[in-house]
Amino acid sequence: MVDFHILTLFPDMVMQGLHTSILGRAVDRGDIAIEAVNIRDFTTDKHGKVDDYTYGGGAGMLMQAQPVFDACQSVIDRIGQDRRRRVIYVTPQGKPFHQAMAKELSMEEELIFLCGHYEGIDERVLEEIVTDEVSLGDYVLTGGELAAMVMVDAIARLVPGVLHNEESAETESFGDGLLEYPQYSRPEIWHGKRVPEILLSGDHAKVDAWRLEQALLRTKERRPDLYEKYMEAHDLYNQRG
Ligand code: 6GU
């Protein structure tokens, strides 16, 4: 069971996106909990303002420390001190997100995601509340919401109970460090293309061997970086080259 709390200026966007399909059902069953907290609700500014100009000049506005701090503190007060928690700021300045990080975070109890907007957030509040800064990759989004939603999805599906077919989280891409092998369903011939013969053989050992071979070939061709890591980790260079 992981509780997700997303601090954002766009709570509807986050809740819409995360209450659908598999995650929606996981929430209904109580395997995970997801809430969006509107940072604007915590501003002490009488006009509801949460941003201001940056010291030193330059284009764009910055989210101010006060509403961000108070929104985060309100969540922490509700959680209680004894729960294991992380406060994750989603930002292109963070460490690149990957599957092993998703796995590690899926074992926490309380995950608070902080979504920035405008040109970012006052550095002083980040220093006080954030435990992890994480990025989706080397490109820029208009805000942290989509990035947080991607991370919540990747983490939530690793929480026990969320995926009913326990196996599917284990054998898929990245679970073992390889890309997935190609898959086929009916009909046996489509647009003149046949399903590989071995998959129709009923010989499970042969099918497994073929799938591993395909996964290795595909990873070597498309992601030489992952292939290298896998071969090193399994000490397979001597056997295969
Ligand atoms: Cl985590 N946030 C934002 N705002 N933009 C991004 C990102 C995160 N990762 C890549 N681009």
Please give the order of strands in the largest beta sheet: 2-1-6-5-7
Q: Count up the helices.
A: 10
Q: What is the chain-wise order of helices and strands?
A: EHHEEEHEHEHEHHEEHHH
Mean pLDDT: 94
The whole-angstrom Rg is 22 Å
Quickly give the structural class: alpha/beta
Strand content: 15-25%
How many β strands by DSSP?
Answer: 9
Describe the 3D structure.
The chain has helices at residues 11-18, 21-29, 65-79, 99-105, 123-129, 145-156, 168-171, 204-222, 224-233, 237-240, and strands at 2-8, 32-38, 51-53, 61-63, 85-96, 110-115, 132-135, 189-190, 193-194. By secondary structure, the protein is of the alpha/beta class. A five-stranded parallel sheet has the order 2-1-6-5-7, sandwiched between helices. It has a two-stranded antiparallel sheet with strand order 3-4. It has a two-stranded antiparallel sheet with strand order 8-9. The protein is elongated. It starts with a strand and ends with a helix. The mean pLDDT is 94. The structure holds 6-chloroguanine. Residues 90-92, 135-137, 139-141, 143-144, 147 line the site of 6-chloroguanine (6GU). 6-chloroguanine binds at residues 90-92, 135-137, 139-141, 143-144, 147.
Write the layout of secondary structure elements.
Elements: E1 2-8, H1 11-18, H2 21-29, E2 32-38, E3 51-53, E4 61-63, H3 65-79, E5 85-96, H4 99-105, E6 110-115, H5 123-129, E7 132-135, H6 145-156, H7 168-171, E8 189-190, E9 193-194, H8 204-222, H9 224-233, H10 237-240
Parallel strand pairs: 1-2, 1-6, 5-6, 5-7
Antiparallel strand pairs: 3-4, 8-9
Helix pairs in contact: 1-6, 3-5, 4-6, 8-9
